[in-house]
Protein: Exopolyphosphatase
Amino acid sequence: MTQPTDTLSALRDSPGEITPDPTRLAAIDLGSNSFHLLVANYQDDRLQVVARLGEKVQLAAGLDDDGMLSEEAMSRALDCLNRFAPFLEDIPTSRLRVVGTNALRDAENSQQLIDRAEAMLGARIEIIAGREEARLIYLGAAHALAESGRRLIVDIGGGSTEFIIGEQFEPRALESLRMGCVTYTQQFFTNGEISEKRMRQAELAALSELANIRRPYLKLGWEDPVGSSGTIKAAAAVLAAAGDAPEGVITHEGLARLRKRLIKCRHLDKVDMEGLKTDRARVFPAGIAILSAIFEAFDLERMRFADGALREGVLYDMVGRNSPEDSRLKSLEMLARCYGVDTRQADNVAATAKTLLNQVREAWDIDEDQARFLDWACWMHEIGQAISHSQFHRHGAYLLEHSDLSGFSRPEQRLLAFLVRAHRRKFPLKEWQALPASEQTSHQRLARLLRLAVLLNHSRPESPPEVPRLEAHGEALHLTTTSSDEPGLMATDLEQEARYMTNAGFELRVETVELRAAGRSQ
Structure:
């Protein structure tokens, strides 16, 4: 197979505005326990915090046994976002990112909340995968740490706990485990009772989760264990207030004493310690059980707390987006290498798609972000051939949707996967109709442009072919080609494509003008 050198270069040259020094940025972290808002100015490679807010929403507590979010939990979430909204009034949506984590990943009806929240904020909400959450947490924590060396970063959230080993700003290992202070409170402290037995049950469950990563993490090793976010910050504050550890540090001995103090409280309603905020008290024992298991599994003697977590990581990641440093480009480069992309064909399809897009961009109101994803889909559309030529569009879509792609949110992977799935044969109506209603129009438009670009390069030419004239009238497309001889393969392909579109409920009208006639009319 050809080496993907040209394609990798093309990926880095994909369309999009580079914004190296945005003035005002904002991130909202829709966590399973808390929602956080961070507004900051970015200057000289540093964030200058303008506003920082956090509220305990306990979204994960609103999930029932069927994975459905209750209306009460959604109301708490929307009320919180309504209080965040005034801080976002002067921030363009291009400089705001709203990310959802474990509870929204798990909720079967998360789209209901997302639709209502997006209408309120006027911004898109991105559900991020566990390892992407871990990567962003590491990015935020790494910027808060001046020291070099290999670090273990631990972040205990409401529904999941992230573990990252990294050096400088590069993670070496990323993992997200399904254990959090809210979900463990529900599972092991259901009636509020705190006992040695319940604490140990929670710890054993956490140790079982940790068994999957313990050996490879210990083998990779680290010099500096660091904790971020609420549970670890609260544990450090309680230990410092009791004189059981230096400020900002958790020790093995101090953690053991804290564990005993919690058991003596006997009930979640009676957890009241200096340094512990009231709104965290009920989920604190479960968080300490998870933290105790982490110390046990990794043989830790101490861990220090560091500011900088998911929301800071989101802002730093936003600064690098749509630039050569965009982490999404690295993920696509990896796929191109792994699956042996035919770079010449990918480049030709991308060039053709760009020309087609430019002809209908205004009529279809296609923005830079959408153009970027069409561009990327052109380079990724054949990756499924590494599995099998038969149904390779389905294989490629599966790879794009289910791979861990750093930098991509779940909606972004879903868009890329849909475009690859839809680029040939029958238009996938079922998959298209399963998309959120707000995305259906833009996604089918991009897919139809990709289909035409692939079709026009069906013969796999040495260079991009001459692109016909394309016009958009509403959702209907009118393609005008020129021909100097009898209808051939291209005409047959276009006729078939028109039938595919008709069957899907769209219109593609193909008109062929003879070259001699076209020349006389000029």
Q: What stands out?
A: The longest strand covers residues 46-56.
